[in-house]
Amino acid sequence: MTQTAGDEYLIGVDIGGTKVAAGLVTAAGGITHQARTPMVANDAIAGLAAVISSIDSVRAAAKLEAELDIPISGIGICAPGPLDPRTGIVINPPNLPGWRNFPLASEISKTYRLPVRVDNDGNAAALAEALWGAGRDYRNVFCATIGTGIGTGIVFDRHIYHGRTGAAAEGGHMTIDYRGPRCGCGKFGCIEVLASGPSIARRASEKIAAGRSSAIMEQAGGRLDRITGEMVGRAYGSGDLLAKEVLQETALFLTVWLGNIVDLLEPDVMIIGGGVACMLQPFFEEIRNGLPSWCVNSHCQEIPLVTAHYGADAGIAGGAALCRSPVT
Ligand SMILES: [Zn+2]
User: Fold this and answer.
1) Alpha carbon of 109 to ligand 1 centroid (Å)
2) CA 182 / ligand 1 centre spacing (Å)
3) Is residue 193 within 8 Å of residue 199, measured between CB atoms?
């Protein structure tokens, strides 16, 4: 890859409960090197060492290719919330119990003598899409990452909207059906418990348990508890009617939800990413056609509904993007 004078690199880090992924990211949002390290969830110091080790691996890989006469200008980290994006302190993440009130940004900054930013994955992924991805031509961006959960981010004029304490944009926990199933967050009928990958699997298995037949059961080896969202997606691809019904219901839940989002924010673009996004893409048209029933905004169908540019690398790109946008 040819670099020109004045270029710089960013390091993006994506911390999960079981692994840390780090990558070297160009000023234009391209990821050139990646490294993965197992995460230590229950020990603060060992967890920090895992993050440092993943950053070191990326720096070493880049040096091997003699590209590092280009400076690294910052490190941005996606970490599990709750956290304070202004101070870079991780507060009490349920899946990283070792890090209670842990000053992640200042620890990493001390090690590398670089500016360090920390935010949650939903916000960071939205910023990467807004700066470099599917939202780069738009001012006001709403982005949802649908996978095992639903993370969301709101970006206005290339700045993440954080709210008063940094806890804004938890759009995955907006209740769509207050009589619905209980979400992991404790509330009932959040969009996350209706439209995430595991909830798609749950609704398929409930229909099969009620006596319906479906090709999904073959994929799951005859076991209801082995059904996954991906299996539902594959079965839909091969014409399975029950899978189609489950995905159509999912699309309806998302239509109701996005109708609320449009009425609240009227974004210039709505971006859907995450592992479930591909499986839902055939339903985007249906969602857009359904919006006027769930939205008072007469321009709602003019808002593009698009797939995210970044896939599994969204956390790395998102981390790096944080270095490009000051917290306001
Ligand atoms: Zn919830």
Assistant:
1) 33
2) 8
3) yes
Measured in Å, residue 145 CA sits from the centre of ligand 1 at 14
Using the mean position of ligand 1's atoms as its centre, give its distance from the Cα of residue 185 in Å: 4
Residue 91 CA to ligand 1 center (angstroms) comes to 19
Task: Quote the tokens at residue 176.
Answer: 């769509």
Sheet (strand 140-146) strand order? 159-160, 150-156, 140-146, 269-273, 305-307
- Rounded alpha-carbon distances, angstroms, from residue 126 to 182, 198, 286, 291, 307: 26, 22, 23, 22, 12
Q: What count of other Cβ atoms lies within 10 Å of the Cβ of residue 7?
A: 14
CB-proximal residues (5 Å) to ion ligand 1: 173, 183, 185, 187, 190
pLDDT at 249 over 90: yes
Q: Given the structure tokens 């804004």, which residue do they identify?
A: 168
Q: Is the pLDDT of residue 47 over 80?
A: yes
**Left if phi > 0, otherwise alpha if psi is -120 to 50, otherwise beta: which for 159?**
beta
Q: How far is the CA of 150 from the centre of ligand 1 (A)?
A: 9
Query: Rounded distance, CA 177 to CA 182, Å?
Result: 10
Mean pLDDT, to the nearest integer, of 64-90? Answer: 87
For ligand 1, the distance from its centroid to the CA atom of residue 193, given in whole angstroms, is 7
pLDDT over 90 (residue 49): yes
Q: Cα of 186 to ligand 1 centre, how many Å?
A: 6
pLDDT at 7: 78
Minimal CA–CA distance to 255: which of 218, 281, 223, 288?
Answer: 288
Tens-place pLDDT, residues 161-203: 999 999 999 999 999 999 999 999 999 999 999 999 999 999 9
How many angstroms does the Cα of residue 57 sit away from the middle of ligand 1?
36
Which of 151, 141, 245 has the alpha carbon at shortest distance from 190?
Answer: 151
pLDDT in tens, 52-62: 999 999 998 87
**Domains of the chain in sequence order:** 9-121+314-322 (3.30.420.40), 134-307 (3.30.420.40)
> What is the pLDDT at residue 2?
47
